[in-house]
UniProtKB/TrEMBL annotation:
<protein>
    <submittedName>
        <fullName>D-alanyl-D-alanine carboxypeptidase/D-alanyl-D-alanine-endopeptidase</fullName>
        <ecNumber>3.4.16.4</ecNumber>
    </submittedName>
</protein>
<dbReference type="Pfam" id="PF02113">
    <property type="entry name" value="Peptidase_S13"/>
</dbReference>
<keyword id="KW-0378">Hydrolase</keyword>
<dbReference type="InterPro" id="IPR012338">
    <property type="entry name" value="Beta-lactam/transpept-like"/>
</dbReference>
<keyword id="KW-0645">Protease</keyword>
<dbReference type="InterPro" id="IPR000667">
    <property type="entry name" value="Peptidase_S13"/>
</dbReference>
<feature type="compositionally biased region" description="Basic and acidic residues">
    <location>
        <begin position="75"/>
        <end position="94"/>
    </location>
</feature>
<feature type="region of interest" description="Disordered">
    <location>
        <begin position="67"/>
        <end position="117"/>
    </location>
</feature>
<dbReference type="GO" id="GO:0009002">
    <property type="term" value="F:serine-type D-Ala-D-Ala carboxypeptidase activity"/>
</dbReference>
<keyword id="KW-0121">Carboxypeptidase</keyword>
<comment type="similarity">
    <text>Belongs to the peptidase S13 family.</text>
</comment>
Length: 518
């Protein structure tokens, strides 16, 4: 008897094969790393870790039909969880921002839902005085610079457990992305998708490539779940041939956005011009995250690549130029991004500035504000105000945190994280799941690797500008309470050593993980 494959398995199989190939070379090496330094975790922490692995495995078949991140930010925990069946710890592969250095023995990241269920509701939160006794000396470290603000809250209750100048606003750097994420998941929402399309102007042979603001649109052969420019070209060519057309005038439309495209920091390898049409974030290399040289005109670059793809399909085009699709245009083809929730995860994990600014534009469009840096700022503020978040003194200047005019408080950042963990707001949950995991993913992949007590337990968004070092995220303490924290430090007059400041912040977050604080 032949048993047919289940549809879910057919969808999942390519990803399972990829996981196996990713894990196999590293199992022996990581297993050796585990032996010399056994780590003692509390039962609540191990319970939270087990919950994370169980949830990841249970979600595997369902998630296989959805987007899989080429940078590893969505696959990291699933790959690791799949590898645990008799294999030991995995390091999630070596793509994008994932570290090649294996972390010391540690569990996977604690469940972002830990502390919200009944099992931890009977466990008391850390005592405020005991917590202050632990954190005060660490935050008084001179390497952090002259200004330091901090807040720790219990996510289950929202109660503030620790504060140090909580309401004082500072330059937040990339922790601004937490606010952008919450705003985007509120409006337009987690299920919204960004569409890139082609249209044919009536009674002409003009094809217009219309940008929908998707910075994850890719021209790579393996799109890995992201919207594919190749697919769009294939489908456009098919539609044109059905109309007996093999030679067209090609134009491109970026009219969705308004205002300056160049970020106020100027030309910079951290971000491309913010335009409604770009491919692979206008990167001039094969990278998918981090700094890279960028095309000076991302939209024109995308249109040129599209013309080449059409040519490969037998459609000749003119040299593409800017235009605007009319309301009378006829649809040819379209491709859509994964849901905004997936873009939020990738943005947070890799601190992706291009995605951050694109999401900010979408918040503006959904809020009836002009999709520009100025309009984005107004829209983000308005959406957070609707959620009842503390905004005293807060000022947004962009969505990425690259602008030093941004001002956020530790109080707001922890309130954002607590709101994302609120069962009443499941639409915000990817704010927590997208946070980099200490020693494993994104901007924390090379941090905490020598600290087994925090590796996989601390999840946090990093922030770094000259003279500014910030960290905001979640951690499960030794009693199993899920705590949200925000540490903002700066000294513009005498910028501290960035490596020393980051290490001090990491040590402070580790203290939360190891503190029962009774």
């Amino acid at each position: 008897m032949v048993v047919p494959e289940l549809r879910a398995w057919r969808a999942a199989r390519p990803h399972v094969v990829r996981v196996a190939r990713t894990v196999k070379p590293h199992v022996a090496r990581v297993t050796q790393a585990v032996r010399p330094r056994p780590v003692q975790f509390t039962t609540p922490q191990l319970t939270a870790v087990a919950a994370t692995v169980g949830l990841a495995l249970a979600a595997g078949a369902v998630a296989a039909a959805g987007p899989w991140d080429s940078t590893g930010q969505r696959t990291a925990e699933r790959d690791w969880a799949a590898s645990r069946e008799g294999e030991g710890v995995a390091d999630h592969g070596h793509t994008s921002a994932t570290s090649r250095k294996s972390p010391q023995p540690a569990p996977s990241a604690a469940s972002v839902l830990a502390g919200l269920g009944g099992s931890t509701s009977t466990v008391p939160a850390p005592a405020e005085k005991a917590l202050a006794d632990v954190l005060d000396p660490l935050l008084d470290n001179a390497v952090l610079g002259a200004t330091r603000t901090a807040v720790v809250v219990d996510v289950a209750t929202g109660k503030r457990l620790y504060s140090k100048n909580a309401d004082e606003v500072q330059i937040p750097a990339s922790t601004t992305k937490i606010a952008t994420a919450v705003a985007a998941l509120t409006a337009p929402g987690p299920d919204h998708r960004l569409q890139t399309r082609t249209v044919l102007e009536p009674d002409t042979k003009e094809v217009v490539l219309v940008g929908g603001g998707d910075p994850t649109l890719t021209a790579r052969k393996d799109a890995e779940g992201w919207a594919s420019l190749r697919t769009l070209a294939d489908e456009t060519a098919t539609a044109l041939k059905a109309r007996h057309m093999d030679r067209v005038t090609l134009s491109y439309d970026t009219s969705l956005y308004a205002g300056p495209a160049l970020h106020p920091i100027g030309v910079n390898e951290n971000i491309a011009q913010v335009t409604a049409l770009m491919v692979d974030e206008a990167r001039l290399d094969d990278s998918t995250s981090g700094t890279a040289g960028r095309a000076l005109d991302p939209a024109a670059d995308a249109a040129r690549k599209f013309a080449e793809l059409l040519h490969d399909k037998g459609i000749k085009t003119t040299s593409p130029g800017p235009s605007k699709a009319t309301s009378r245009s006829q649809a040819l083809a379209s491709v859509s991004s994964p849901p905004l929730s997936a873009l939020v995860e990738r943005m947070l994990t890799n601190s992706d500035n291009d995605i951050a600014e694109a999401l900010a534009r979408q918040v503006a469009l959904a809020s009836d504000e002009q999709p520009s840096f100025e309009g984005d700022a107004k829209a983000i503020y308005a959406q957070l105000k609707k959620l009842g978040l503390p905004l005293s003194g807060v000022d947004f200047a962009d969505g990425s945190g690259l602008n030093r005019a941004d001002r956020l408080s530790a109080d707001l950042l922890t309130a954002l994280l607590a709101k994302a963990g609120d069962p009443a707001h499941p639409e915000l949950r990817t704010v927590l799941t997208g946070l980099p995991i200490a020693g494993f993913t994104g901007t924390l992949s090379t941090r905490y690797t020598d600290d087994p007590t925090a590796t996989g337990v601390v999840r946090a968004k990093t922030g770094t500008l000259t003279g500014v070092n910030t960290l905001a995220g979640t951690v499960v303490d030794t009693d199993g309470r899920l705590l949200a924290f925000a540490f903002l430090t700066s000294d513009e007059a005498h910028p501290p050593n960035a490596l020393e400041a980051r290490a001090a912040l990491d040590h402070t977050a580790t203290a939360l993980a190891t503190c029962g604080c009774r």
